[in-house]
Sequence to fold (330 residues):
Amino acid sequence: MKIAVVGATGLVGSKMLQVLEERNFPVTELIPVASEKSIGKEVTFKNKKYKVVSAEDAIAAKPDVALFSAGGSTSLSLAPKFAEAGITVIDNSSAWRMDPSKKLIVPEVNANELTKEDKIIANPNCSTIQMVLVLNPLHKKYKIKRVVVSTYQSVTGTGVKAVQQMENERNNIEGEMAYKYRIDKNALPHIDVFLDNGYTKEEMKMVNETRKIIGDDSIQLTATCVRIPVVGGHSESVNIEFENDFDLQEVKEILSNAPGVVLQDDVENFVYPMPLSAHEKDETFVGRLRRDESQSNTLNCWIVSDNLRKGAATNAVQIAEWLLKEKIIG
Fold:
């Protein structure tokens, strides 16, 4: 199984290598790819060093799968070239997510949509992935009418430069700014670019991607996305209105049995999801489950997941695992 990782030297690309190794994905040959300035640099995988190559060299090597995490413009230009060569691309950028001809996949929710014809597969937005893992099993049981979500997102979602900015600010060091404002001791209600409707692109990703993954355009959803000075993962306060009433104990049972989800809901013993405890974990954690006392058929919950793992690298590797299991690749 030949695997190319495009963007191998970046934050998510490095995490992809780590996750491939940890999950013991059957890599027989690794082909790390990065921008021109990184060609010739080395990455380590399973205690072996591999030289970074160009995209052209990677295509010529004919990998079975290419995991992309190199940004939207790179994906738009390179993914079709890999696909034309018969290579299955799993792309972590936003480039292909809302393309009607491309599948947007969270394996626990909709992997069964994939076929051999799918040569470019989109990995959803990190904040969307963790939310749909919780929403999907509840939607099947109670049918969701409306979702109101507020996010508290890690600086790792922006990249190395943002982590460095936060560390610099904590140590009173002047340095390069990833954000317009200070992030340490602050909260920025601004993730991605602002759109004409006053929402950010990140907020609209959550709306549109959720409907596509669950496969129901009738779900009404509104989001406010906020960057906070943490590194372990993204947190979300989610208010879910159902068409049908629910039993809180039954909700807990459904989520306890939902694939990829861990219920952490014991407030008497102060057990609830936090980025600190979700860090470097592949699961999505849900807790603080309670009825919305202001409105019928409505549930409040708190969802946390490591955005570099399940929100990006792990989800991509899990898609590759599913393709391998179903003999779509290999």
